[in-house]
Amino acid sequence: MSVNEQMVSTIVQEVMAKMQIAADASNAKGVFKDMNEAIEAAKVAQKYVAKMSMDQREKIITGIRNKTIESAEILARMAVEETGMGNVGHKILKHQLVAEKTPGTEDIKTTAWSGDRGLTLVEMGPFGVIGAITPTTNPSETIICNTIGMLAGGNTVVFNPHPAAIKTSLYAINMINEASVEAGGPDNIATTVEKPTLDSSGVMMKHKDIPLIAATGGPGVVTAVLSSGKRGIGAGAGNPPALVDETADLKKAAEDIVNGCTFDNNLPCIAEKEVVALDEIADELMHYMVAEQGCYMASAEEQEKLTATVLQNGRLNRKCVGRDAKTLLGMIGVTVPDNIRCIIFEGEKEHPLIAEELMMPILGIVRASNFEDGVEKAVWLEHGNRHSAHIHSKNVDRITEYARALDTAILVKNGPSYAALGFGGEGYCTFTIASRTGEGLTSAKSFTKRRRCVMTDSLCIR
Known about the structure:
Organism: Aequitasia blattaphilus
Mean pLDDT: 93
CATH architecture of the largest domain: 3-Layer(aba) Sandwich
CATH topology of the largest domain: Aldehyde Dehydrogenase, Chain A, domain 1
CATH class of the largest domain: Alpha Beta
Number of domains: 2
Oligomer: single chain
Domain Aldehyde dehydrogenase: 32-426
Protein name: Aldehyde dehydrogenase EutE
Radius of gyration: 23 Å
Strand order of the largest sheet: 11-14-15-10-9-16-17
CATH superfamily of the largest domain: Aldehyde Dehydrogenase, Chain A, domain 1
Structural class: alpha/beta
Strand content: 15-25%
InterPro entries: Acetald_propionald_DH-rel, Ald_DH/histidinol_DH, Ald_DH_C, Ald_DH_N, Aldehyde_DH_dom
Shape: globular
Keywords: NAD, Oxidoreductase
Distance between the termini: 74 Å
């Protein structure tokens, strides 16, 4: 056996050993049988964290970042295998992104002012133990992102992950606690239960030691959190439209829209879910999508079959969510080459495959008679979620008008949707976008409370 083969064998053994953690929850750090036990363990750890210096917290966060990069492929493959959703290569990129661009302790800042009557400080303090609910779409990414931000603010966190992604979630939580212990920090900075359920979520939301709950998921879970009587950060659904006008670079717009729509098979809530194109450029835009961007134009008959397959009894067919275009077409008996990555079609805004948030690479295109009509249709399609919207235009006045009309937490101009997360665009990364409760793209400071400290008639030396 060569040295290279030995290295490969060693790596494979390490990967298999780590993946076994997820299969055997009893071996995982931070995992408990009962939610009350998980909360108590996180509470004990938070007392330790609260006394740590910012440098000590940052040392743990650095360890989490490093382990996330090291385990990016493992976590990506685990998530796709467990949930059946998404794209391994894209999930690797998402883990690298969350490791490199999620804000840490640098996001925690003190403001101060002095005057004739003394000195005042306003500091960001921890809530304590934060409760967090995480989705199947980005299970480990959300857990890692939340933990980095919450720990930076001096908190610990107890998770109630989606049951359909529990193995991936347990692996991420174990990894986070390993990083803490190796950096000299406490165990149980992130905790959970072996078998998360609606009941365990209810215990978490009602627990006296949980002052803040962060929910990343659909409208139902966000509504439940906001009805809990606790402070809530709600990251809910979106149905982001992409408006294209006649001033846009149409070849680039086609590329950006398809790249954004197909990233991780359209699982990100910020991804382009439908296109509103001005009538005069719609045909040219669709031409570039088909000829250059691997799009398949679905016929009227195929649209009907897709609708019947994707939407069943008025609800999304979970077997279709996060699947690639070739798989979706195969479900209706259409065979396409491997380069097909997106299904497009033209329809009215009320078409069920356009009006519904699908989370799969099916992209309906709605014609608009003029820009004003386009804005009106985009506003309708976004359904008041105030989550994300995108526009391709070189007219600054139109971009401004669109931004004001949509009033979303995220607006991407002349780029793919994922630029909003710092991937090919400026800014930090997050996987909890709280459009509904107003925090927008959450970061460490979102998980802190403001505290004012006032000293009268002293320490002003002007």
